[in-house]
Amino acid sequence: MTRRTVRIAMNGVTGRMGYRQHLVRSILALREQGGLDLGNGEVLWPEPVLVGRREHALRALAERHGLTEWSTDLDAVLADDTIDVYFDAQVTSARVDALTKAIAAGKHVYTEKPTAADLAGALELARLAEAKGIRHGVVQDKLFLPGLRKLKRLIDGGFFGEILSVRGEFGYWVFEGDWQEAQRPSWNYRSEDGGGIVVDMFPHWEYVLHELFGRVTSVTAQVATHIPRRWDERGEAYEATADDAAYGIFQLEGGAIAQINSSWAVRVNRDELVEFQVDGTHGSAVAGLRGCRVQHRSATPKPVWNPDIPLGAGESFRDQWQEVPDNAEFDNGFKAQWELFLRHVYLGEPYHWDLLAGARGVQLAELGLRSAAEGRRLDVPEVTL
After folding, report:
1. Is 18 helix (H, G, I), strand (E, B) or coil?
2. Which of 95, 156, 175, 348 has the highest count of CB atoms within 10 angstroms of its CB?
3. 291 closest CA partner among 141, 154, 112
4. Could you report the per-residue pLDDT of 50-105, keeping only the tens digit for each?
5. For 87-180, where are the alpha helices, taking DSSP H only?
């Protein structure tokens, strides 16, 4: 078995998502398993080069994990001919410039989303990448969650019959930062810094809906800033200028309707932080991050409206659903997509979660915000280069 090294410049890994999911649970996890077996007698060995703005944070992170290469000079890293792949997990406002430089330098690029602040910028990145002939991918991690993979299995097996509707609930309470530290960085709540739940979450909903149920053809959205005053990492109060909740209705190709609520100002009263209920003529399912429960039409009870029955006196509605078995071992979703992207880069295997797919997510967020501002439903045109 021949070991082949791939050097990956990883920008933004001092942040929460870039560090935990991409560095630790993906790239370092690949190293811990001995590399990525390409199946052709070669093992791909990822060698991360950490990139960021804070020298002390990069040094500490490298020392913690026994890594030797890090830099605060992105231009120098991209000028290094031994760097094969550039990965970006920075704040959105810094992403376009960095990705543009990486593409110009001929690096294969893999990036978090949204890929840009607007559709024009996202499409330009896709055009540049195609013109340069490099491989490019966008993180679409929720497709690889165990719960959604089980849901995809049900769809592919024809479990639902005709799919009628999708209802999603996502979110949790993000502390304001005054009496308890916030779980998310303060820039998320400043629109001038690229924050907002629509910009953050609508790109996710676009690819989930597109991949599982059909292309989004129209959007109607209402947004809110429920918590207008928050406290930042230094304990200083600031005005929240970005939306922290969004309520969307999406018409899908084929006729199904999706309704998805997204909020950082909601307390969780569900089994998982995100859940999707799918209702079809032959059955329904509720899928979360890991679990998935179903109710087939042959086992659907006949509820009767009766508010006089005390709570708990009858059978629990939740007990009337059946758990879908794993039937497989599910790896971390971020790591699974990293493996597919690296196989795409080095073996040319098919891969369609590219910068054009990322542009569709940016488009839906842009149209969602416009729908909320104008108070009307908007069509979602197909995105092409």
Report:
1. helix
2. 95
3. 154
4. 999 999 999 999 999 999 999 999 999 999 999 999 999 998 889 999 999 999 99
5. 95-104, 119-132, 146-156
Structure tokens given for 63: 């020392």
In this predicted structure, the answer to whether residue 309 has a pLDDT above a threshold of 70 is yes
113 neighbors 88 (Cβ within 8 angstroms): no
CB neighbourhood size of 54 (10 A): 11
Closest CA to 383 of 118, 103, 132, 86: 118
Strands 42-51 and 70-71: parallel
Joined together, the tokens standing for residue 369 give 């915000």
Placement of tokens 């992403």 in the chain: 95
Token pair 């543009």: residue: 100
Token pair of 306 as six digits: 């009766």
Helix (H) / strand (E) containing 76: helix 74-78
Q: Residue 352's CB: how many other CB atoms inside 10 A? A: 10
Q: Mean pLDDT across the chain, nearest whole number?
A: 96
76 by Cβ neighbours in 10 Å (0-12 / 13-18 / 19+) ranks as: exposed
Asked if 260 contacts 115 with a C-beta cutoff of 8 angstroms, the reply is no
| DSSP element (H, E) containing 87 | strand 85-88
Whether the upstream peptide bond of residue 114 has omega within 30° of 0, thus cis, is yes
Tokens of 200: 């953050």
